[in-house]
Amino acid sequence: MDTMDIASTHLDVRDLSKSFELHILHGKRIVGFEHVSFTVPRGAFVGIAGQSGSGKSSLLKCLYRTYLADSGQILFRAGSGPTVDLVSAPDDTVLDLRERQIGYVSQFLRPTPRVTALDLGARPMIRRGVARAEAHERVSDLFRTLALPGDLWDGFPVLFSGGEQQRVNLARALVGDAPLLLLDEPTSALDASLQDVVVRLLAERRDQGTTMVGIMHDAALLRQLSDILLHMETGRLTGIEIIGDRLLAVQRTGSDLLGLGRAE
Fold first, then answer.
1. CA-CA 20 to 30 A from 6: which of 39, 42, 76, 219?
2. How many of the other CB atoms lie within 10 Å of CB of 15?
3. Inter-residue contact 72 to 15 (CB < 8 Å)
């Protein structure tokens, strides 16, 4: 990979905080996470590690703007065009970025009723103007790789098992070719052999230049994929670890690269 590609910043998270108001408990506020700062180099895989309740998923949902952060900035830098703060940007801007720039794989697929697996998987390509037949062919290749049985392709994912839905969800995200991919437990419902297939697919995309930020329940798989590992505990970022040598070619120190020296 070209050094300049991985040296440039794709996502810059600055002093981000998120809390939740529980109306059923008379307005009690629960901290999801607070004062989190880090940067994501273009073309890197940044893993987020921590126990349940540490704020990992809430952070990832804020990056996708499923949750709106209380304070801070998420500066998204596309290959060209202006920098966009995903915290303050208008909804239309965020939706446009989701169409072409930012993909998301959640643990759970929320399929549209009476939409087949092929059509659901191909939707990102079709929305970009790709012919339906070509989009179906691309998705079919991914379904084969992910061992989704052929007799399910024209079935409705709303009726599939959790593991089958997860494979459809992953194929839909990968076929979209988004430059930034956010992964929330993409292998949680898969057996060991399929987890290995998914890790191989994600590693290939990473090596081709896709930037990824991900959470996985399997710590070993997450470490295997990650160039950078963020450690979270009780809603705080407690450490940032550089793994392997993919980032060592970058002519900056780890602290500068990751924004550790930034004042909060």
1. 219
2. 15
3. yes
pLDDT (tens digit, 9 = 90+) per residue, 206-248? 999 999 999 998 999 999 999 999 999 999 999 999 998 777 6
Tell me if 228 sits within 8 A of 240, measured CB to CB: yes
Cα-only R_g, the chain: 18
User: Helix/strand/coil (H, E, C) string of the chain?
Assistant: CCHHHHHCEEEEEEEEEEEEEEHHHCCEEEEEEEEEEEEEECCCEEEEECCCCCCHHHHHHHHHCCCCCCEEEEEECCCCCCCEECCCCCHHHHHHHHHHCEEEECCCCCCCCCCCHHHHHHHHHHHCCCCHHHHHHHHHHHHHHCCCCHHHCCCCHHHCCHHHHHHHHHHHHHHCCCCEEEEECCCCCCCHHHHHHHHHHHHHHHHCCCEEEEECCCHHHHHHHCCEEEEEECCEEEEEEECCCCCCCCCCCHHHHHCCCCCC
How many angstroms separate the Cα of 166 from the Cα of each of 42, 106, 162, 190?
Answer: 26, 8, 6, 8
**Which whole-number Å values give the CA distances from 20 to 27, 31, 50, 55, 186, in the listed order?**
9, 6, 19, 12, 25
How many CB atoms are located within 10 Å of the residue 18 CB?
Answer: 22
Average pLDDT over residues 93-122: 88
For the whole model, what pTM was predicted? 0.88
The residue among 37, 74, 73 whose CA lies nearest residue 180 is 74
